[in-house]
Design a protein that fits this description.
Layout: H1 2-15, E1 20-36, E2 45-64, E3 67-77, E4 80-84, E5 92-111, E6 115-138, H2 157-160, E7 163-169, E8 180-193, E9 197-208, E10 224-241
Antiparallel strand pairs: 1-2, 1-10, 2-3, 2-4, 3-5, 4-5, 5-6, 6-7, 6-8, 8-9, 9-10
C-alpha cells in the first residue's frame, strides 16, 4: 500500500510542476466513536457509541488546483459506553478517551472556482493522552446489614449488592494498555474560497488498525476505535507560487 501511495504522489507532483501553496488554519467539531469489540464471555453487555469533541490545526500544501497533501495536529475524544443488561440492568460505564493525533493524507478537489468539493484518503498516528470513567457499579464496601438473607429471590443485581455511582480518572496499566494508535482515514467535504482564506465543512471516517490493548492474556478480545468526525474550519493562505 505504501508503494501505491508513493506512486500516486509522484504522479500528482509530475502533473502540476511549479504550483504550490501553503495553508494553515483552525477546525472544530464533534467525534462520534464506536468501540469495535466482542462481548464473548462478558454476557449481558453491550457497547454503545458516544459523542466527543474534536479540535485541530490543519496544514494543507496544495500541489495543484485539484490536489493537495494534508497534515496537522489534532485532539480528539474517542468515547464509548459500556452498558449491562438483563440481571445487571442499571450498571454502566461511560469512558472518555483523549487522543493527540497526527494525520497525513492526500486530497483531490473538483468544482467551480470558489465552490469546490473534495475527497481524500490517508493514515494517522495517535497517542492516548488521558482517560476518565464515570458510571454506576456494584459497591465493594457493602456492610453486613446490606447483604440479602438466604432464600431471597433476586431479579436484579441491585437486590444482591449495593450499587453506587463513581467518577474518576483512569490509571493506565503499562502491562495491558497500548497508548499508541494508528489507522486509515477517508474524508469528503466542501469549501468556499475567499481572497485570503477558505472555509470548509468536512466529514471523516477513521478506523484504527491497532488493538487498544497489548497482548497480555490468553483468548484476548481485540478492541478497535471507529470514529466519524464532523468538522468545520478555516484555512489561511501563507504563500503561493504558480
Amino acid at each position: 500500500m505504501s508503494k501505491l501511495a508513493l506512486s500516486l504522489l509522484c504522479v500528482v507532483l509530475a502533473a502540476a510542476p511549479g504550483y504550490s501553496q501553503w495553508q494553515i488554519g483552525l477546525q472544530g467539531g464533534v467525534a462520534r466513536n464506536q468501540l469495535s469489540t466482542e462481548t464473548a464471555y462478558f454476557t449481558y453487555t453491550r457497547y454503545l457509541p458516544q459523542t466527543g469533541l474534536h479540535i485541530g490545526v490543519p496544514v494543507r500544501y496544495a500541489i495543484a488546483d485539484w490536489a493537495a497533501i494534508r497534515t496537522g495536529a489534532e485532539l480528539t475524544e474517542k468515547n464509548y459506553r459500556q452498558e449491562r443488561t438483563g440481571f445487571f440492568d442499571g450498571l454502566y460505564q461511560n469512558t472518555r478517551n483523549r487522543y493527540l493525533t497526527l494525520p497525513l493524507g492526500v486530497e483531490f478537489s473538483f468544482g467551480v472556482k470558489r465552490w469546490k468539493g473534495y475527497c481524500g484518503f490517508g493514515g494517522y498516528a495517535a497517542y492516548w493522552t488521558d482517560s476518565r470513567i464515570q458510571g454506576r457499579g456494584v459497591s465493594v464496601f457493602a456492610s453486613p446489614e446490606d447483604q440479602p438473607s438466604d432464600g431471597d429471590q433476586y431479579t436484579s443485581i441491585s437486590q444482591l449488592a449495593p450499587v453506587s455511582a463513581f467518577r474518576e480518572n483512569y490509571v493506565f496499566d503499562r502491562r495491558k494498555d497500548r497508548r499508541f494508535e494508528a489507522g486509515w482515514t477517508t474524508s469528503a467535504g466542501v469549501r468556499y474560497a475567499f481572497p485570503a482564506c477558505q472555509v470548509f465543512l468536512e466529514a471523516q471516517y477513521r478506523y484504527s488498525l491497532t488493538d487498544q490493548q497489548k497482548n497480555y492474556m490468553l483468548l484476548q478480545i481485540p478492541r478497535y476505535n471507529q470514529t466519524i468526525l464532523l468538522t468545520t474550519g478555516v484555512l489561511f493562505h501563507l504563500s503561493a507560487s504558480h
